[in-house]
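Problem statement: downstream parser choked on a complex file, so we are re-checking the raw output for the flavin-adenine dinucleotide run. The parser issue turned out to be on our end (a line-ending mismatch), but while we're here, posting the original submission so the record is complete.
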Amino acid sequence: MGTDLFDVAVIGGGIAGVTAACHLAEAYRVVLLEQENELAHHTTSRSAAVYIENEGGPVFHRLSTASRTFFEADHPELDGPLLTPLGVLKVGGETERAAFEAEVAAANEVTSSVRLIEGDELLAECPVIRPEVVTVGLLEPTAAAIDVMAVHQLFLRRARAAHAEVRRSARVTQIDKGHIDKGRSVRWELQTAAGPVEADIIVNAAGAWGDEVAAMAGVEPVGLTPMRRTAFTTATDFDTSSWSMMYSPISKLHCYFKPEAGGQLLCSLSDETPSEPCDARPEEIDVAQAIDHINALTTLNITSVSTTWAGLRTFAPDRNPVFGWDDQVDGFFWLVGQGGCGIVTSPAAGQLTGALIRGEAIPDNIASLGLTQEALAPRRG
Ligand SMILES: Cc1cc2nc3c(=O)[nH]c(=O)nc-3n(C[C@H](O)[C@H](O)[C@H](O)COP(=O)(O)OP(=O)(O)OC[C@H]3O[C@@H](n4cnc5c(N)ncnc54)[C@H](O)[C@@H]3O)c2cc1C
């Protein structure tokens, strides 16, 4: 089998990989390598599909805010919008009030839509709440439901239109440093299940497998931890069309549920269980506990489940994303550690990847929010 030569090999066909390919393919010969026979098979297709800005801490918040313009733009390739308005309501009792007040102040340094609500306003956002348990809410009214597969398809379509090559069933199994051969130098030689590939730059967008890919390339891992989260849907007779998504961080009552089309609620315990990189499977105990918590906080009285699934949310040790060049090994770019925010941050992540690989500064729309390369760097202090 012959070896194919590219400028950039992007490893991973989830949202991170396709947004990177989309932003690089105009300037470089790009190949996107995905181990599964379909793209977006792992975490990307298993999310709750919510656009929240005030989520994951200040770094993620800024990347999500920087992504909003893309999500709200008219994209000629699409039939409909990427976002559908859906408020997000974080609920608590008096124990949570002080933390919520501090969170409003911090969130509003970036965006000004987050506010505390209580009483009738709280009940209007989520009429099934039990007022004896829930007394205060932190509302993000400008949050939205997001069409994740449309976002993924949009990036993929643009990458392909710019001649990126997409190889499925192409698990990368070995990465060697390159060579100089007949006057031609190549930095990386990759063995894949679909044949060998050579490239000058590797973009590591391998999600839960990010540290494994790094180790294969002789790059020191950054300490990623994949965390399993189980989710499920359940049918409801309530008219949920005007409800916000409800999220409870209350100790021993943590959970969320999100109104979906067709009389369904998407629910989760918002569990985080460390896992090996794998095809994550749902845990019955996490579904049962989520039902207990939701029923304790609301009058939904959930008794049955329609579908269940699980995905891996992958975190760096400080729970911030890892976007940037490795500072020890040339030609290795990290695009991992997106945790629970990989969809909402994907437009900014792709933009940033394109700029840094082309040797440019962080784009203005991201830098103006106060984000620096140091905050995202693989080996930040
Ligand atoms: C229950 C749940 C709810 C969530 N809700 C939200 C939400 O509302 N909003 C939000 O923004 N985010 C949410 N997330 C998080 C979001 O889904 C992730 O941050 C995002 O999908 C990560 O994308 P990724 O491309 O990095 O990873 P993945 O989609 O996992 O893609 C990585 C790809 O790399 C491939 N790969 C790995 N190793 C190799 C190899 N050696 N060779 C070739 N290919 C390889 C894998 O097969 C995989 O397809 C949620 C996650 C879960 C589990």
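For whoever reads this later: The longest helix spans residues 58-72.
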